[in-house]
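Mods, move this if it's the wrong board.
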Amino acid sequence: MNGAGKTKETGTKARRRPFWTMLQGLCVTVPLGGCLLTGDNPEPGLDIPPAYSAGPRNPVAAEAAVPPLGWWRAFRSRELTEIIEEARSANLDIAAAIARIVQADANARIVGAALLPIIDLNANAQHSQQSKTTGSSSVVNVSQSGASIQIIHNDLTATLNASYEIDFWGKNRSLLRAAEETAVASRYDREVVGLTTVVATANAYFQVLAAQDRLRVARDNLASATRVLNLIQQRLQAGTASALDTAQQESLVNTQRAAIPPLEQTLRQNRVALAVLMGRSPESVNVRGGSLRSGLRKRVPQTTLAAGIGDLHRRRRFDPTDLPWWCAARQSRSTEGQAGRVAANLS
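Not the wrong board. Structure tokens:
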């Protein structure tokens, strides 16, 4: 009786064991289900105003004021257009951004391969030839040309394996979606790099023009101050001027002369920056430049200027140094002040 009772109790425990295993698995699965992410994208929460203070209030007029993609052609400068076009096609930052797009696409394909079945095919071929006295084979080739009889053995094998991982928790699909979104983001990065390159190239070219204008003004001021110094020295020899007047004018001449090297360095730096943006060595780039006063400002329509200002406000933080006409106005004020100082010295 005791043996029968123990046997019955053991069978009951054996029948209960699968039930407890399934219950434990269910208890682990339910909490893990709360860790699954939904497919809804989080809202960025960006507060976009209906109109900007520097642009038109009418949405139709604001849309019409946006400059075209080739806005640099409105300046009607052949050299500026050639430099920007070459920078768009040969800039190394843009090339690196394109390479990142290719890399992101390749990573997306690699990650997506986990959702496909894995098929493995192995094949093996073996050929052996041995003496009849050392082994046996199913294929025998008897040759009477030698002292011993040779046995030839051919062994061909092939193995095909196929496996597939069930993406029960959605891990592989989530990784694929993340890789695809990264590939999309890399394309936006390429557009940002392209826009930044074009703007940096245009700014560098405008800085070259501004530096050339400032150099011309500085050299004219130096020439004027030198002529005034010669007049004062002649007056000193005639006894109508003092040594103090000569010393003051010499100090002014030296000040004007010292202002030229920084401007020349600024001009060289911007020319080197243009060469780097174009993906070329500085020795192989020759930027002629010109003048902001007579080269660009008079040939740009007023509608284009207004559109450019509104577009700068809409797309990025406004910086007046990005506008060539602002640089020209500032340069004109600087020229007026320097001319006033020279006239005061002459008087």
